[in-house]
Amino acid sequence: DAGVTQSPTHLIKTRGQQVTLRCSPKSGHDTVSWYQQALGQGPQFIFQYYEEEERQRGNFPDRFSGHQFPNYSSELNVNALLLGDSALYLCASSFGQGGTEAFFGQGTRLTVV
Amino acid sequence: AQSVTQLDSQVPVFEEAPVELRCNYSSSVSVYLFWYVQYPNQGLQLLLKYLSGSTLVESINGFEAEFNKSQTSFHLRKPSVHISDTAEYFCAVSDITQAGTALIFGKGTTLSVSS
Description:
The structure holds two protein chains of two kinds. Chain A is about 0% helix and about 50% strand. Chain A has strands at about 5, 10-15, 20-25, 30-35, 45-50, 55, 65-70, 75-80, 85-95, 105, 110. By secondary structure, chain A is mainly β. Chain B has strands at about 5, 10-15, 20, 25, 30-40, 45-50, 55-60, 65-70, 75-80, 85-95, 105, 110-115. The radius of gyration of chain B is 14 Å and the shape is globular.
């Protein structure tokens, strides 16, 4: 079991650019959540996808969008990048919308310059 | 909105000493509670969770946490720590009255174990 896999592991982008991060959930899981972890902080919930729809959203602007595919994998898109978007982006998967155990990937380290 | 407060940002201890990492959450509504551990340059690993039932929950590597509803706390303890326990520890809460399972995390506690 490969667990939750994220790609790429590291990424450097310029202000104003757009970025796409990818996540494959753990085998058997159908729900994907995305979190942003700034340096020295706890992860902050961005949104959750279940049955290819955004089900719950945290306090993030519309520049942050996502998608879930029929195979349950997911993408996180961030437009018009700001320096403050530099962070570790974590994907978590679980089973069912009310799943109580989330498994996290290793994360994608995004640096905006 | 839910919030989580981890009362200590850094906890330095010596090997084989006991340790307690403190966590308080904001609301008395029904919640699930979690402790996650993060090693350098890695994602988060679930350490233990409280969903219902016994208020004392244990992990396989000797950590335990006690849910205290009246104090809205979920402190993590270990009677004897090892060097390998050095990591960042995050307390998290999930509001079970809401759809979905968004986790609200504290800012983390850095546990540093030295010999």
